[in-house]
């Protein structure tokens, strides 16, 4: 059990972590989420007694880390996969760490097997890929067979097979009753791995709840409505009618409307009463990714601006339209766009579904592993290019129930 | 308990990187080879020397002439042993495993110092015997008064140079910064300060100038140095201890 109380860290006048209090319980994978620079790594270093908190304290099993008896056998950590002397072999690296913690040398070969690096054990780690480096770091964390494990961005640089392996490893470690604390900035990955979430932004606690609660608290349902592109006045008409009826209307990039606060049948009725034809009326559930972005939007330290490329642009040929900027995370009010409708039935209404928008329940928590499924959506999207697993997972989350 | 674990681990660390072998063998080869060359040249020069120079001719010290360059390799060894932890980021893993930072630092430095002492002693004796062989009829014997003290002192001098570098590296953390300060300091600045009349009085209290006094057997005629060979070595030990203390205090206080 890791417990932080009022943890604060200041570097000069910059506050990296402010008044952070949370508990990480054994027997579960706890995800530690936040944008880059939000204080995740600083918090991890304070847990390990590497950085001294400016105020507050953090304990493991009731002890501050430096006072923890036999610390390296109790706590294992992966802080930085690149923290290896490049000229040293993987085996020597682990051997000197094992000797430092009083762990017998045979354990080194065991963990090399666990992470699948036996083949390259005697090679210099200089030539390792980022993924192999992560595996070496995980091996180091497992050396002491510890009850408390901390992983800082363990899936960075891993291939899909490696990501799946890490996910299963975390779950297995938690199932053995260990405390597993994993930081990441990938919400979609955490949705599949973690049981509990601690979200921070700008060093402050934003959420501390189970994944299930997080989704239901943060993902708002909405409806997407499209009026005929040929008659823009219909769009205006519908917008005012819906607003009058108490709905909240947000125009989307492609000319469609995003409506919250009104059930789907009611939107249809209002459109009918206003004599507006609809080209699309579809239910959506905001993904966990969106929920996370909405929550952390005010707390992002590093934002991109649109690249002006002044002086670099070729003069446009006469009559050509300048390209539209691609919507990106740095722009205000932008959320991850819902994935394209699965082919075949773009306008299909949900049938007999509970919930206002027909997309019930909370996907994600009970979501089966996408690798375990033999591609259920594949027949519906024959033209879709193979997607990386992370985006496939988030696509699953926003997909209407009937399209799955 | 923890100290034994750190010592064992550090021995593995120091053995498993190529830079250890390179820097230490370079220190031996450069010191011995340059010492032999200068000894051989001195034998031919002896007949042309003034009376004053002949009187203060110190065959033992001449055979250690290569140390001015060889010590630079020792500096690199000392700096790399400590700053590798920082440049790779392993310091965090190490300190997470051994939260007692003092135990960690001093056990680490003890291992590197032991190795440097072994290499330094071997260098001292080899440089002496091969240098004397080059000097021919002007040579000194190991049994002559004070000669054994000078040869063992040469080994200790090289060790202390490495220890001082380790302390500086523990304070500065960055290998580039540490080498960028230590190399020009020992190769140029110390020599300049020691040879310009205005700064001579300060220059001779610098670690290398004070420490090298232990390797002299025949004192220079106009020598007015206020300390003897052991006093000089003592000054160098104080420098090394100060560097280590600085490194320890900073490591203890700083965020890793």
Oligomer: heterodimer
The pLDDT mean of chain A sits at 79
Strand content of chain B: under 5%
- Could you describe the largest sheet of chain B, including whether it forms a barrel? none
Encode the helix/strand succession of chain A as letters. EEEHEHEHHHEHEHEEHEHEEHEHH
**Shape assignment of chain A:** elongated
The computed structural class of chain B is: mainly alpha
**What strand line-up does the widest sheet of chain A have?**
5-6-7-3-8-9
Mean pLDDT of chain B: 92
Shape of chain B: elongated
Pfam family, one (chain A): ABC_tran
Family (chain A): Belongs to the ABC transporter superfamily.
Keywords (chain A): ATP-binding, Nucleotide-binding, Transport
GO molecular function (chain A): ATP binding
Task: Give the gist of this structure.
Chain A: Residues 2-227 form the ABC transporter domain. Chain A is of the alpha/beta class. Chain A is 29% helix and 20% strand.
Report on this model:
The complex is a heterodimer of chains A (404) and B (256). Helix content of chain A is 29%, strand content 20%. With 404 residues, chain A is an alpha/beta fold. In chain A, the strands form three sheets. Chain A has a six-stranded mixed beta sheet with strand order 5-6-7-3-8-9, sandwiched between helices. The relative contact order of chain A is 0.12. Chain B is elongated. Chain B has twelve helices and no strands. By secondary structure, chain B is mainly alpha-helical. In chain B, α8 packs parallel to α12 (229-253). Helix content of chain B is 79%, strand content 0%. The chains are: A alpha/beta (404), B mainly alpha (256). The interface between A and B is medium-sized, with 34 and 28 residues.
